[in-house]
Amino acid sequence: MNKSIVELPHSTPEQAATLLYVFNSVYPISEGSKKFLIENTYPIKVRKGKKLHKAGEICDMIYFVNQGAIRGYVKDANKEITTWITVENELVASIHSFILQIPSYENMEALEDSNLLGMRHSDLQHLYDIEPEFNINARRFYEKYYSDAEVRALMGRLSKAEIKYEFFLKTYKHLSNRIPLKYIASFLGINLETLSRIRGQIRNTSENKV
Length: 210
Known about the structure:
It is globular and about 55 Å long. Helix 7 crosses helix 8. A hairpin with a 2-residue loop joins strand 5 (70-76) and strand 6. The strands form two sheets. It has a five-stranded antiparallel beta sheet. A four-stranded antiparallel beta sheet has the order 3-8-5-6. It has two domains: 5-157, Jelly Rolls, CATH 2.60.120; 158-210. By secondary structure, the chain is α+β, with helices and mostly antiparallel strands. The longest helix is centred in the last third of the chain and has 24 residues, at 134-157. The chain is 46% helix and 22% strand.
């Protein structure tokens, strides 16, 4: 475990309450699944600016974000390229590494002081075996992950910065005034100056309509 991460004993029912609520809203989970999730998830605190996971290592845990914001990024020479941004009530992992249990391409970093619940890959596989209906929950979450990945891929392929940011506001508006602009710009594949100009134009247009 990274030294910047503080790992605690397994979750209490109170700490796991939001996780259980989110899973149950996707597909009803059994009492056995609830008990297993409480006993095999671990509250983890990650300070702002610290890494949750480093590229080149195997991502052995998947995380539920109770509070905070996490980004994934890759390094290209001296440049950091943000690949995704995740906030409360979502699952996060370097998913390619987590599923295949191979070294990852991505780093994972806290953009805010964050409280997470982590679950080990081996424990999740065991949960699939002993509580078969939980596989439906997993399938639906992976479907959402794949759908979100497609949206990110489409956004990255748009040619004009203005259209990219317009697409971003339609799909990630909740992040627009929360996440530092340099990470949003990196996520969109545009430079910070261009993003600042576009936001200024949108702000001026809105003010002129008043």
